[in-house]
Structure formats: structure tokens, C-alpha cells
Amino acid sequence: MTISEKDIPFIALNGVSKTYRSGSERLPIFAGLDLSIGKGEFIAVMGPSGSGKSTLLNLLAGIDQADSGSIQIGGQRLDQMGEAARSAWRAQHMGIVFQFYNLLPMLTAAENVELPLLLKSISGRVRRERVSKVLDIVGLNGRGRQSPTKMSGGQQQRVGIARAIVADPTLLLCDEPTGDLDRKSADQVLAMLGFLNRELGKTIIMVTHDPEAAAQAGRTLHLDKGVFVEDEQVMA
Amino acid sequence: MTFWNFARKSALRKPLRSALLIVSVAMTFLIYGLTAGFVAGSQGTAAASDELLGVMNAAGRGQPLPMAYLSRIAALPGVADVSPITRLRGSVGDARNVVAVSAGDPDKLLAVSGADLGLTPSLIDALKSRRDKVLVGQSLAQAQGWKTGDSLTVTAFRTKKDDGSRDWRFEIAGIFEGKNASTDTHFILAQYEYINKARARGIDTVWAFALRPEPGMAAQDLAPQIDALFANSAAPTRTMSEKQFLSAFLSQYADVKRVITLVVGVSFVTLLMIVINTMVFALRERRFEIGVLKTLGFRSPQILLLVLAEALFVFVVGGAIGLVVAKLISLATPPALGLVIGAQVSLRTIALILLLGFVAGLLPALSAMRTPILAAFRTR
């Protein structure tokens, strides 16, 4: 039996605890959470509101910090990095897709996609080529000059995905990417995420309430009160 | 898209608000440009010379000096040329139409002030052709509609003729243009001998001596030597440069420079408060967006730079508009108004634009830089 790349933990959470302060009380979110995700996996995280899905995503994105435990991604301890290092790490290795797209209205679609590339020392010509390439991947080539405010929700989310992958990250974090879309647009976005996972090898972690969206993933984690209660593996 | 383009687009995201901010900045720097131009021009700091010296009575400008001082001053080593100057102020026609007449020795005036006033040998020859001939500065000639050959009568406020009349009749022998647009040419040049011989009182006295030091002789070194020469005489002198004189003359009425500095300072503080307040509120609306940028990997210093660049954009555009309009106004107004916006004023204005842009952007930029991502996301 050979060990595939997916069997080696790309993401490893060990004993992660997180509490939030609410007035004088401390509300526990996670108490010793463990998680292991292989490289190239497509994971859906489901669970009721308040179960800790968003907190998990924030911890993985390095925009929130655990009280204790370790968070290791691609061999690097995210929990031991300072803020500047985590920002640099996100710019280098991570793409984030938001539920409400979070595109900047004063920029064109192409300029929104180009934003993460402004952080890299690459020429304008290379930047434009990469933007054009990812807009092509998401099926929006020729729409780069359009303002996102004049696009449909589905198109805006595709711009959001293009922005998330333009810097060629290894990890995509998606926060309810279909939560604001109609079924048809949602299916197109899910198909695109599936393509990015299968064809480009992106590791994807998607928080969702939508069972149909979760069905696109190779593995679904059910979170409830800060604990993984079920780990469904879809056999290909 | 470059980082600067991104900042520009961010600054212009609300076009009306951005336009109003830019107009505020433009108005402030228009006021600054005009007042700084006034200080540099009317105060004589641009046109007045540091090299020309004026010798006056130390007891006050209204007090005369004896003409006999002329030869002693002229004999002093380092003095190239010296001319006696006497003044006559009065009105032409309407009592409110006040003019100033400065009378000197024509040849010495050419040597002392010829280059600055734009006097030529032919103009001086025309002046000398008859004792009542005068040269009129271009600015005054334009304002009065006078031309060469015209006659005019100045009714003096104080200087009486020996026949008891205050009416001094002159004929215009020529118009002098001044070295450049900032030169004060709003006066009449007459001959000392004519005024001196015809006046009832103060014969053989002067209001001042104008002198030019020899090349290589520093004016500030010569001035104390002249004053030392007459220190123990009945009429001690006070010697100063033309620039010092004009500055001191204006400060008789008020410290113009200080008043202008205060007015401009207050307008700058007001502008800063408006811009900082607007930018802080604008950024409060954009906290979520700042959170998104940080999530995408923008580091705190980059957020700081972005917001600073936005403030600088508003100041650079607004300041440039204000400065250009001030320059156009200075070119369009008559030289008598004394607005001079030269390289020094322009460079100082540009430095102020950059400094104030930086100061105005700093507070909102620091606030944006310190905003935690999760706190930014909670604002939606």
C-alpha cells in the first residue's frame, strides 16, 4: 500500500481551544479541537449557527488566534506567527472566498482580481496576464473592465474566486460561497470550486449550510458546539 | 493598476465628497498662494534690493538730512554712486487720487537705481531736458491713463512752493517700466534741483540718500560705516537696505507678515480639521473594506501607506489647483497689486501641500492600520 499526498496532513489542528469573552463571562467555542486535512482535499464544514464554523475558518485564515493548541498548515505553525507574518503568509499561500463577495466597488472586476498581486514584486504585464488567465478560468474573460456593481451575484462571486486564486495559493477558504446565490449560480460556483480542486489541486475548505454544496466536497465535517460530530468521506 | 492608482481610485470612491474636499484644499492654497505672493511682492521682498542702501534720519522718516552729507557719503570707500532723494506726496485732480513723487539727481539715479527701475540714458536725457520734466512708472501711467508729453499738476499735501502755492506742474518726459513685473513702478521720478529750488522750506535738505555700493562691497558692511560717520552729528543717520526699509515701512501700520501668517495658519488648521474629520468618517464607513484588504494579505504598513496616499492625492490635486489659480491671478493683476508668485513661493507651497497632506492623512491612516480584521468585519 502506498501513501498518497492526501494522506499526509497538510493542515493539522492539535488541541485547539478558543473562548470569546462576553461581558464578564467566557464562552467556550473549542476545547481541544483536533483536525487533520490532507493536501488537495475538498472539505465542507457544516453545522448549526454558533457551532464554531466561522471561528474555525478565522483560525485557519490567521485572522483570529487560538487560546492554546497548535495550527499547522503546510508545515508552518500559524499560531506562532506574528500579525505581519500571518498577513504575508495569507498573501502567499491562501485565497479567501467570501459569502458577500466583498469586491471593492470603485475598482473594475479585473482590478479587484489584481489586488492580491499588488503585494507581489511582479511587473504590470505579468499581473495583467495572470488576471486575464484567471478571469478566463472563471468564465469572465472580456468582462474585466466591467464594474462589479453591474454584475449579477453569480458573476460577482466568480470575480471573488478569481481574486482568491490569482496569486496561485495552495489553500482556498470559502465562507458560504453560495449563501447569497440562486441555485443555478450556486451550481456554477460549486462546479468551479470542484474544477479548482480536481484540476489545479487546490485544497479547499468550505463552510456551508447548503447540503447540495456540501455534496460537491470529498469530505464533510459536521461541527456542533465546537466538536466534530461526524466525518463523512465520499468515496470517489 | 499600480498601488498609487489604487489609492487614487479609493480617494475618488465618493466623487462629490472628494470634489468638495479638493475644492476646500484648493481654496486654502489659493488663499495661501495669494497672501504669500503679496508678502513676497508688495512687501518688496521680491522686487526690493538687498544691495541698494537708503540713508535716512535716525530720528524718524519725517526728519530731513542736510544735503551736505552727500559729499561725505560719496567720499566713503566702497560707495559707487549716491543720489539725494526728496519726496513730495499729493493728489492729481481728485483729492483722493494720491500720487507719490520721488526727486533725485537724474544721472545718479541712473547709476544707483537704473537697472532696477528700467531707466535708460535716453530716458534720463529726456528727464534732464527741462527742470519740470518727470518720468512716470508704467504701473502709475497705466492706472492714470498718462502718456509721454502729458502735463499734470500735483497738489502737494505739505510741500509748499516759495510763492505759497502747493501746485507742482510737471510734464511727462517718458515712462519707465521697471526691471520686471514685480518692480514697484507706481510713482513719479522728478528732479531734485527743481523741487529743492522751488520749495518754500527745507531747502538743501533731503528725505534720504540712495546709494549703491561698489562691486565686492557688501551693503550690510557699508551701512554701519555710514551711520558711524554721522553718529555724533546733529542729525545721526540710519542706513538700511531697500528691502529692510520697505519691510520697516509696512510694519509701521501692522506686522503684515505676522497677520498673514496668522490668517493662513488659522485657515490651515480649519482645513486640517475638515479633511481629517471627513477622512476619519470616510474610513469608518470603509472599515469592512480595510478588513477585506488585510484578509487578502495587505499588511499594516501597506494600509497606512494607502490611506496616506489617498490624503496626499486630495492635497496634491487641490493644492496644485489652488497654486495654479493663484499664479494666474498674479499674472492677471496689475503689478501695483504686488502679487509675486515666483519659484520660492511655489516651492514653499508645494512643501506645505505635501506636509499637510501627510499630517491630514496620518490620523486616519494610523486608525485604519490598527483596526483588527475581526473588528472590521463586525462593522457590516
Automatic annotation (TrEMBL), chain A:
Q: Which Pfam families match?
A: ABC_tran (PF00005)
**Keywords, in A-Z order:** ATP-binding, Cell inner membrane, Cell membrane, Membrane, Nucleotide-binding, Transport
GO cellular component, alphabetical, reads: membrane protein complex; plasma membrane
According to the entry, every stretch annotated as the ABC transporter domain falls at: 11-236
Q: Which domain of life is it from?
A: Bacteria
Any one GO MF term held by the record is: transmembrane transporter activity
The family note in this entry says: Belongs to the ABC transporter superfamily. Macrolide exporter (TC 3.A.1.122) family.
User: Which protein are we looking at?
Assistant: Methionine ABC transporter ATP-binding protein
Q: Which organism is it from?
A: Candidatus Rhodobacter oscarellae
| Phylogenetic placement of the source organism | Bacteria, Pseudomonadati, Pseudomonadota, Alphaproteobacteria, Rhodobacterales
UniProtKB/TrEMBL annotation, chain B:
For this UniProt record, give its keywords in alphabetical order, as a comma-separated list: Cell membrane, Membrane, Transmembrane, Transmembrane helix
Magnesium among keywords? no
Please state every residue range assigned to the domain named ABC3 transporter permease C-terminal.
Answer: 263-372
- What Gene Ontology terms describe where this protein resides (cellular component)? plasma membrane
- Where in the cell? Cell membrane
**Source taxon at top rank:** Bacteria
Q: How does it sit in the membrane?
A: Multi-pass membrane protein
Q: Which Pfam families match?
A: FtsX, MacB_PCD
Sequence ranges assigned to domain MacB-like periplasmic core in this UniProt record: 21-228
Q: Where are the transmembrane segments?
A: 259-283, 303-329, 349-369
Q: What is this protein called?
A: ABC-type antimicrobial peptide transport system, permease component
Q: What is the lineage of its organism?
A: Bacteria, Pseudomonadati, Pseudomonadota, Alphaproteobacteria, Rhodobacterales
